[in-house]
Amino acid sequence: MAAAVSPTSLESAPRIMRLVAECSRSRARAGELRLPHGPVATPVFMPVGTQATMKGITAEQLDALGCRICLGNTYHLGLRPGPELIQKAHGLHGFMNWPHNLLTDSGGFQMVSLVSLSEVTEEGVRFRSPYDGDETLLSPEKSVEIQNALGSDIIMQLDDVVSSTVTGPRVEEAMYRSIRWLDRCIAAHQRPDKQNLFAIIQGGLDADLRTTCLEEMTKRDVPGFAIGGLSGGESKGQFWRMVALSTSRLPKDKPRYLMGVGYATDLVVCVALGCDMFDCVFPTRTARFGSALVPTGNLQLKKKQYEKDFRPIDNDCACPTCQKHSRAFLHALLHSDNTAALHHLTVHNIAYQLQLMSAVRASIVEKRFPDFVRDFMGTMYGDPTLCPTWATEALASVGITLS
Amino acid sequence: MDIPACLLYTKTGSAPHLTHQTLHTIHGLPAMAQLTLSSLAEHHEVLAEYKEGIGKFIGMPELLLYCSLHDPVSPCPAGYVTNKSVSVWGLGGRVEMTASKFMAIQQALQPDWFQCLSDGEASCEEATSIKRARKSVDRSLLFLDNCLRLQEESEVLQRSAIIGVIEGGDMMEERLRSARETAKRPVGGFLLDGFQGNPATLETRLHLLSSVTAELPEDKPRLICGVSRPDEVLECIERGVDLFESFFPYQVTERGCALTFSFDYQPNPEETLLQQNGIQEEIKYVDQTKKIKTTSCNQEMTSFEINLKEKKYQEDFDPLVRGCSCYCCKNHTRAYIHHLLVTNELLAGVLLMMHNFEHYFGFFHSIREALKSDRLAQLKELIRRQAS
């Protein structure tokens, strides 16, 4: 529990974040990350390409959409194709031929998502492979070792993750263990000059535990902090309060990465609460189910009502799908066995998320973020006052009123 | 359009796996795409309301469009052709079409060319009877005359060319009759139907093919359906066929394979040596594994391709084909494709389709070049050496 690193070394951590503008009412910030594979404007949404691919879209398409950072996953890539092969291919960048930035998750989340196949001890997480039954131990050292081989620009500590619906001593155990594992990750990290190791704040939905975690982890010399353990099954009321608590105690001059978020409303609210970076499988996953994201929610394009709808998904969207195709065509294609249908929607949904973040950022820079939030909620819910209670409360807590 | 050529294969109006963006990274795209009525018939009401034609609806207004009855990859069940109607099978089920319904659908689609309603079932059974062959010709001619008459009554339909279909099973007499009679009608071109099947059946039908094309006018295009393998394509070109479907590269893609056959009939001596060694290696390996590699397309792997799922590609950092200018070969390695296939990722199909189409279109380009310089025999020999 004692800090392995002295507080005075706080000054030596690389400052990868440059603040460009701050909202005078809320905690929203616009900034720029300086990463080895180029600058990234924040707030930023990072699409998830788990297994070294953004599902059905090419690196060129992703680049053309303006994406400058996306995710890969250590657990999956560690199994297939494995770190040795990726190293031979000149790292994950070389293997998938992605010229911009990559962030790799540590494999911690798989502890929750694959809980029936895993066992956690102080040593690490023992996973049983679903492919060949082999057992692997993912320790903090092993996770960092794999991520060093992958060569991603931002790497995540291995954290002891418990589902946000778990209560009791396990939450406290996981929080303290995450601190110890952070120190082990820092010690094991072979490439601090090329790869930025982020800490992940845990503590579940318990304000005291989370506060302790924040106090301890911010003593460590890391370039950025993630807010973890949320975006699971918890209520939105508990969710926003933990996010707000975390941002209130994280340093201003380092990026705040809220993991696993998400839906458009959540993104806008959490930017107001002071978060800079987000990731979520939702937009790309929902695309493959035929759902297109729009400012008023989503369109389930497989439904009969779109059969003769000759408009594009969104008139104001600049993506290739909206430039060339109608809802009616996509509806027909979605009812076929041609995978192109899924790719059209993946392109659009990623464009939607990136365009949203761009608009959010512009409004912060131009000092009209609160108005932007009001407009956004009005469009999404029909009227700003019809916005969900949790969001209204969260925004109010940082000085943004909707009516 | 330069001939001989292939048509871009599509499923429900889209190249398989490819969006407009990824499709247009492919070099040498054909000037004409093939649409299948089987995938579009069930949407005809939507198209009728849309009014502006299938080309615009699918986002391919710049390509010429040919509408065939069936999808060459998934042949339909036999026994549904009557004197009055033909059926196609979409994903929503069977669509039965009389001549007037068929023409109404074509009026909504507005393709540049379309295959006329025809009876292609004389070639389905093992051994066709002369009676069945005769019926296929009679019916098809009747359908053709009905459709031509309906076309005269519609300004919209007159903007499309009807492709007459040559039937007659394996009966020479009926084939000749079909060719001569169809050629008398004002069609835009001819579709040679019923020559498809397994490689063995094509062999026996090749002599029929020569006799049929000899009866057809030189100034109208001759299309063939169901023939797409490089060796078979060359045999048909020598026998007067101009246009082919490009479903073979799609089938190769679906089995996780990449086309690697050479069509460089004028290589430098060093390349020849390298290639010969390479080809021998591939053929050796393929012979051992060919029997095991049946696919969902019910097609076995050919020796024109490599199977990227094989373990030996796991650490192969070469492109699929050295010197290939496609997006996949310029940006990715065999090892990456192997990984995508092993992990069941959608991108595998996208990248393989891009490569396989480009490789195949390159083959057709080399055919045209070989014909211009009178070197078709060399190209044919090169392909024959690689077919097993």
Automatic annotation (TrEMBL), chain A:
Residues 26-379 form the tRNA-guanine(15) transglycosylase-like domain. One of its GO terms (cellular component) is tRNA-guanine transglycosylase complex. Belongs to the queuine tRNA-ribosyltransferase family. The active site is at residues 105, 279. It is a peripheral membrane protein. InterPro entries: TGT (IPR004803), TGT-like_sf (IPR036511), tRNA_ribo_trans-like (IPR002616). It catalyses: guanosine(34) in tRNA + queuine = queuosine(34) in tRNA + guanine. Catalytic subunit of the queuine tRNA-ribosyltransferase (TGT) that catalyzes the base-exchange of a guanine (G) residue with queuine (Q) at position 34 (anticodon wobble position) in tRNAs with GU(N) anticodons (tRNA-Asp, -Asn, -His and -Tyr), resulting in the hypermodified nucleoside queuosine (7-(((4,5-cis-dihydroxy-2-cyclopenten-1-yl)amino)methyl)-7-deazaguanosine). Catalysis occurs through a double-displacement mechanism. The nucleophile active site attacks the C1' of nucleotide 34 to detach the guanine base from the RNA, forming a covalent enzyme-RNA intermediate. One of its GO terms (molecular function) is protein homodimerization activity. Its EC number is 2.4.2.64. It is found in: Cytoplasm; Mitochondrion outer membrane. Keywords: Cytoplasm, Glycosyltransferase, Membrane, Metal-binding, Mitochondrion, Mitochondrion outer membrane, Transferase, tRNA processing, Zinc. GO terms for biological process: tRNA wobble guanine modification. This is Queuine tRNA-ribosyltransferase catalytic subunit 1. Its main location: cytoplasm. The keyword Mitochondrion applies. It holds the Pfam family TGT. Heterodimer of a catalytic subunit QTRT1 and an accessory subunit QTRT2. NCBIfam families: Q_tRNA_tgt (TIGR00430), tgt_general (TIGR00449). Zn(2+) binds at residues 317, 319, 322, 348. It comes from Mustela putorius furo (European domestic ferret). Its cofactor is Zn(2+). Substrate binds at residues 105-109, 159, 202, 229.
Automatic annotation (TrEMBL), chain B:
The keyword Chloroplast does not apply. Keywords: Cytoplasm, Membrane, Metal-binding, Mitochondrion, Mitochondrion outer membrane, tRNA processing, Zinc. SUPFAM superfamilies: tRNA-guanine transglycosylase. One of its GO terms (cellular component) is mitochondrial outer membrane. InterPro entries: QTRTD1 (IPR028592), Queuine_tRNA-ribosyltrfase (IPR050852), TGT-like_sf (IPR036511), tRNA_ribo_trans-like (IPR002616). Residues 2-386 form the tRNA-guanine(15) transglycosylase-like domain. Pfam families: TGT (PF01702). The keyword NAD does not apply. Its cofactor is Zn(2+). GO terms for biological process: tRNA modification. One of its GO terms (molecular function) is tRNA-guanosine(34) queuine transglycosylase activity. Zn(2+) binds at residues 324, 326, 329, 355. It is a peripheral membrane protein. Binds 1 zinc ion per subunit. Gene3D superfamilies: Queuine tRNA-ribosyltransferase-like (3.20.20.105). It is found in: Cytoplasm; Mitochondrion outer membrane. It comes from the Eukaryota. Heterodimer of a catalytic subunit QTRT1 and an accessory subunit QTRT2. Non-catalytic subunit of the queuine tRNA-ribosyltransferase (TGT) that catalyzes the base-exchange of a guanine (G) residue with queuine (Q) at position 34 (anticodon wobble position) in tRNAs with GU(N) anticodons (tRNA-Asp, -Asn, -His and -Tyr), resulting in the hypermodified nucleoside queuosine (7-(((4,5-cis-dihydroxy-2-cyclopenten-1-yl)amino)methyl)-7-deazaguanosine). Belongs to the queuine tRNA-ribosyltransferase family. QTRT2 subfamily. HAMAP family: QTRT2. PANTHER family: QUEUINE TRNA-RIBOSYLTRANSFERASE ACCESSORY SUBUNIT 2. NCBIfam families: tgt_general (TIGR00449). This is Queuine tRNA-ribosyltransferase accessory subunit 2. It comes from Mustela putorius furo (European domestic ferret). The lineage of its organism: Eukaryota, Metazoa, Chordata, Craniata, Vertebrata.
